[in-house]
Structures are given as C-alpha cells and as structure tokens.
Design a protein that fits this description.
It is a single chain. By secondary structure, the chain is mainly α. The protein has a domain of 123 residues: Cytochrome c/b562 (Four Helix Bundle (Hemerythrin (Met), subunit A), Up-down Bundle), CATH 1.20.120. It contains 6 helices and no strands. Helix 2 packs antiparallel against helix 3 and helix 2 packs antiparallel against helix 6. The longest helix is centred in the middle third of the chain and has 26 residues. 18% of the residues are buried. It binds heme C (HEC). The site of heme C (HEC) has 24 residues, from helix 2, helix 3, helix 5 and helix 6. Heme C (HEC) binds next to helix 2, helix 3, helix 5 and helix 6.
C-alpha cells in the first residue's frame, strides 16, 4: 500500500516536472539536489582550511622554484637539454595558472599566519592577477622557444621569466631580509 502510493507520488511529481519543462520554464530548479561540494569560490563563505591552503601554495611555489633552478642549471651547460628545459617551463606554466586560486581571503601575513603573502595581494587584486598572468605568458613563451633550441634566445627568455618572479615578489611577497 505504502509502496504504491509512494510510487504514485513520484510519478505525479515527475509528471509535474515534465510539464513545467514543456511549458518553456527555465530549468532553474535543476541543481536543487546537486552535490553540496559543487560550491564555487565566491559563494556563501565555505570554511577554508587555512593550513591546507598554506601548504598547497607553499608546495606550488617550491615546485616553481625547483623547476626554475633546474632549467637555469641546464642553460649553464655547453649543450643544454632543451627537452628538459621545455618540460620545466611547462611545469612552471601549469603551476602559474594555479597561483590565483591559492590566495583566499584571510591568509595574509597580517592575519598572523606563517606566510610571506602581503596584504597588498588582496588590496590590489587586479595587479596581482596581472602579475601571475605575466608568469603564465612568459613561461609559455619559454616552452615555445625551447622547442627551437636556440640557446641565446632561450637564455634571454629565461631571464624575462625571472623578471616575472621578481616583479611579483617585489610587490606582493614579504622580504624578510629587509
Ligand atoms: C603573482 C605573484 C608571484 C609570481 C609571478 C611568482 N611568485 Fe613566488 N611567491 C609569491 C608569493 C606571494 C609568495 C609567498 C607565499 C607564501 O608565503 O604563502 C611566493 C613564494 C615563493 C617561494 C617560497 C615558497 C614558500 O612558500 O616558502 C619561492 C621559492 C618562489 N616564490 C619562487 C618563485 C619563482 C622562481 C617564480 C618565477 C618563476 C615565482 N616565484 C613567481 C608570489 C609570486
């Protein structure tokens, strides 16, 4: 009995939904039962696991630093391995794309955290975005040039990419040596 009426209820609900869809109504009610973890940044403040954020961002920058060191070391050789340089530049490129997502509000050094992220990141979001985009662009150029195998050109582009690191660090990263 119970089962039968439940089935009927389900059917009439489905029918109603079907009719609504046919009547041209926007399927605005569709995401009602979407998984709750589908929330996008900017939605109702989801609790941020600060330590996880700091670790992820630290690891990403360490990876960028390691790749940069490796490709510069390679460029000091008489016959650099350009395939390796391209791979390291490509690694920097994909990590550069992640930078922006690693700075949720409340994770600057002013929040009393163990980080070198200056509050200017959140005060000048457009500039910070441009600074990370610059690394995306310069590293992409380096990948392309490395394919050409011209040591001087690749070296010059590696320097240009280094300028993107410095440009951002000067403005947005705490210099603890000062
Ligand atoms: C868009 C800005 C930006 C760019 C571009 C950038 N960095 Fe950084 N970097 C930062 C910030 C901010 C920190 C401090 C992060 C923190 O302490 O949470 C940092 C930290 C680091 C660290 C220390 C890692 C740590 O957390 O201890 C290294 C190494 C590093 N960057 C290397 C590089 C290299 C190499 C490049 C260029 C190939 C580069 N960065 C480009 C902003 C940038």
């Amino acid at each position: 009995m119970l089962r039968k009426s439940a089935t009927r209820l389900f059917l009439s609900a489905a029918l109603a939904a079907g009719l609504a869809a046919c009547s041209g109504g926007a399927p605005a009610d569709a995401p009602a039962d979407a998984p709750s973890d589908a929330a996008t940044p900017g939605d109702v403040a989801a609790p941020v696991d600060v330590q996880a954020v700091l670790k992820e961002r630290h690891d990403n920058f360490e990876g960028i630093g390691d790749s940069f060191k490796a490709l510069r070391g390679e460029l000091e050789k008489d016959a650099p391995d350009f395939t390796l340089i391209a791979a390291k530049a490509s690694d920097i490129n994909s990590r550069a794309l992640k930078i922006e997502g690693h700075f949720p509000a409340g994770t600057s050094v002013d929040d009393g955290l163990k980080t070198e992220a200056l509050a200017t990141i959140w005060q000048q979001p457009e500039e910070f975005k441009a600074a990370s985009q610059k690394l995306v662009d310069e590293s992409a150029k380096l990948v392309t040039l490395a394919g050409g195998g011209d040591k001087a050109a690749v070296g010059a582009q590696a320097m240009a990419m280094g300028g993107a690191c410095k440009g951002c660090h000067d403005k947005f990263r705490l210099d603890d040596k000062k």
